[in-house]
Every structure is written in C-alpha cells, then in structure tokens.
Design brief:
- The complex is a heterodimer.
- By secondary structure, chain A is of the alpha/beta class.
- In chain A, about 35% of the residues lie in helices and about 15% in strands.
- The longest helix of chain A has 19 residues.
- Chain B is built from four helices and four strands; from the N terminus they run βαββαβαα.
- Chain B has a four-stranded antiparallel sheet with strand order 2-3-1-4.
- The chains are: A alpha/beta, B alpha+beta.
C-alpha cells in the first residue's frame, strides 16, 4: 500500500505504475491519474495531476523524469515530489498554497520502455527502445527528438549513437505524446522541468545557441533562488545558467522546445552526482538528493505565483 | 547476479584533456574502441579542461590503460569494478528479492 511504499529505494516500472494507481485511489481530492498515450512497446504513459481541485484554468507546472533510462534518480525524485506534496498539503502552508493555486503534472517515467530495459537487461541503457529496420541498433535519445533545432550540433544522425536524434522530430511516441499534451494545454503551463542526472546543474534555454532568452532576468533569478534553496538543505552547490554556456552547445532539447511553445520558465535539472557513483547513485543518497531538489522545485513554483 | 554479472571487471575511466591536442588524441582513441560515454553524451562534445567519464568493457581496460599511459594523458579510474557498484546500488533490492 502507499503508506508502506519505500521512497528511498529504486523501483521497477511495474512497482512505480502500481504505486501511481494506489496514490490515485487513495487521494482523489488532490490526485488525478491519466495516460497521455502509449510507448513504442505499447506501455501506457501515465501522468499524475497533483493539486486541489478547483477552477479548470489553474496555472500549471510540468515535471518529467526518466527521459534517459539509466538516470534512475529522476523517477525516484518524481515519486518523492508526489509523496511530499500529498503528505505536506495539510501541514505545510507553502505547499498548500502552491497546490491551491497550481496544478503539478508529474510524469515519473517518460521513457518507460528504456527504464524497463535498464532494469532487466542493460543498466546503462539511455535511449528509447524503438527499432530502426535498416540498423540493428535500437533507440533514440528522447532529449534529441524534439522539434527545435532538431538533429543539429550535439546530436547524431546515426542510429547506433547514444545521442541519436531519430528519423524525424517527435518520431518517438513517448516524445510525441508529451509534446501533444503540452501543446494542447500550453496556455496553462507556466513552467516546464525535466529531471536528469549526473552533473549537479540547473539549466535553462538556450541549448542550441549562445543568445540570451528574452526573459533572462526573471529566469536567471528563478534559477538562482532554486539553487540557493537546494544548497540550504545539505550545502551541495549546483551550477546554473543557460545550457549552451553552462554545459555545452547541443541540439534542441525538451527544455528548449517547451520554451519555444511559450512556456516562460523551462528548466532541466541535472541531479547528483558529478562523478563518484555516476549513474549508480546509491539508494542511501535518494533521500538527501530528493530533499534538496524538492526545495529547488518549490522555489521555482513559488516564483510562478509572483510577478517578475 | 544482477544483469547476469555482465559488468564484472568493467571500469569507468575519468580523463580531463588538458589541451586541444589531448582532445584530438582522445577522440582518435575513442574511435578505435567501443566505450559508453557517461559524460559528455558524445565524443563530439569532448572539450579540453572538461571531464570525460567513460564506461570501458573488461576486455578493453588493459588496452586503454596502456594507450593513455603511452600518450601521456592523465586519467583515473573512479569505478574499478562496475558490477560491484551495481550490486551496491541496489543491494537492498537484491536483498529484498532474497526476502
């Protein structure tokens, strides 16, 4: 049951989906579970809407986890966020205000096929699991498959590469489903967050060029507040800034796509660590990593309710 | 064993190329052996003074050690046996499975 669910271990896709059904069943007043499509291998793409049911046109924040299969701390954080939101609604006034005024759309595992494959067969699988009939290699980098500067520098057009952009933009049903949902509801979405791992950074557009985004001041201060909040938990320092200068120039990612369709605050978190455990972050570090990241996400969400 | 013990002896190397020459040598090296780049995501993104972490299969580790030494490129191994780290990451899980 949900109360016995262990948020401090990694869970298989099946366990995560059962947990989502249970959370949806036990908290109907603030949770609504739905599917936005099916994956290449036919798995449902579940999303949890978290927030006090009230007027339909509430502002919204989207958080997706598990774009890259091997980055297990992502799905762990998405589950942690849902648990904290539900448990703290009664006694945390900040979370209660956020959930009264915002809807959070949490997608614990975007790349469901890849995640399952990383549990059962190859721990270091990164991509989706789509087949390319001309090559024996499978999978597309779901963060290089978005319709923005698609397949340019920093992505590969070779199906066997880990940064393969796919045969065409949104070729991956998982990416297409998320893009379709966000496009359909874009007026309500004020923030988009994608959770990744292995750099301890908070990145915002652009990835594909050195130019500054039009609302740079507001986004930069939101990022600064977020990493300050994150640091306050355990003193872990995150770098933050435009992805092109903070990390490297790469072709358009989901964050760039979200910004381009008009979502004013688009971020990509790169969670712990920076190269001690790499993708194998031990379960003992799930709690501190998720605790600090939750503070950062709450800081960004709180910023949405203020004027910048 | 998790993943049928397939990662026994695999290692993760960390190299920080000091200059453009070392970047080119490293890219050429990586063109000859199959590694799984942990960071950056692709060889084309390798820059000098930027960390490169790569997962190397057991059979290629000795060759890469020798090649890096021969080229005078400084490196270290931050995961010396990947299978052990995997067991440790989800040690709870396998224990859970045993339970």
């Amino acid at each position: 049951s949900e109360s016995h669910y262990d948020y401090e271990v990694y869970h298989s896709l099946e366990e995560i989906q059962s947990w989502m059904l249970e959370v949806n069943r036990t908290h109907p007043e603030i949770v609504d579970m739905f599917s936005i499509g099916t994956s290449y291998e036919g798995r449902p793409l579940y999303v949890l809407q978290i927030g006090k049911r009230s007027r339909p046109q509430k502002k919204a924040m989207w958080i997706d986890c598990g774009v890259h299969a091997r980055e297990w701390i992502g799905p762990a954080f998405c589950q942690w966020f849902v648990k904290e939101a539900i448990n703290s609604y009664q006694h945390d006034s900040v979370m209660r205000r956020l959930m009264n005024q915002l809807n959070f759309y949490i997608m614990p595992v975007l790349n469901v096929d890849g995640y399952h494959y990383s549990w059962t067969t190859d721990r270091f699988w990164r991509k989706t699991r789509s087949k390319n009939h001309k090559y024996h290699c499978r999978g597309v980098d779901a963060n290089r498959n978005w319709k923005v500067k698609w397949c340019e520098e920093g992505a590969s057009s070779h199906p066997c590469d880990d940064t393969y952009c796919g045969p065409f933009p949104e070729s991956e049903p998982e990416v297409r489903a998320v893009a379709k949902f966000l496009r359909k509801n874009k007026k309500r979405f004020k923030a988009y967050i994608s959770i990744h791992a292995y750099a301890q950074m908070l990145l915002y557009p652009y990835s594909y060029k050195y130019a500054m985004i039009p609302n740079f001041g507001c986004v930069e201060s939101a990022a600064q507040n977020a990493v300050t909040a994150l640091y306050s938990a355990y003193g872990v320092r995150y770098r933050y800034g435009p992805a092109s200068t903070t990390l490297y120039v790469s072709s358009g990612s989901s964050m760039d796509w979200a910004y381009r369709i008009g979502i004013q605050y688009a971020f990509a978190f790169e969670l712990r660590d920076t190269g001690y455990y790499g993708f194998l972050l031990p379960e003992a570090l799930i709690n501190p990593t998720c605790t600090e990241t939750l503070r950062a996400v709450k800081a960004i969400a709180t910023g949405l309710l203020k004027k910048c | 064993y998790l993943y049928n013990n397939r990662y026994v002896g695999d290692q993760v190397f960390r190299v920080t190329p000091r200059d453009v020459t070392e970047v080119q040598v490293l890219k050429r090296m990586l063109g000859n052996i199959k590694v799984d780049l942990w960071q950056p995501n692709s060889a084309s993104l390798i820059r000098h003074n930027a960390t490169v972490d790569m997962h190397v299969k057991l059979n290629d580790t000795q060759g890469l050690h020798a090649h890096l030494k021969q080229e005078g490129i400084a490196y270290n191994v931050f995961i010396s046996n990947l299978q052990k780290e995997i067991e440790k990451q989800t040690g709870y899980r396998s224990a859970r499975r045993r339970r």
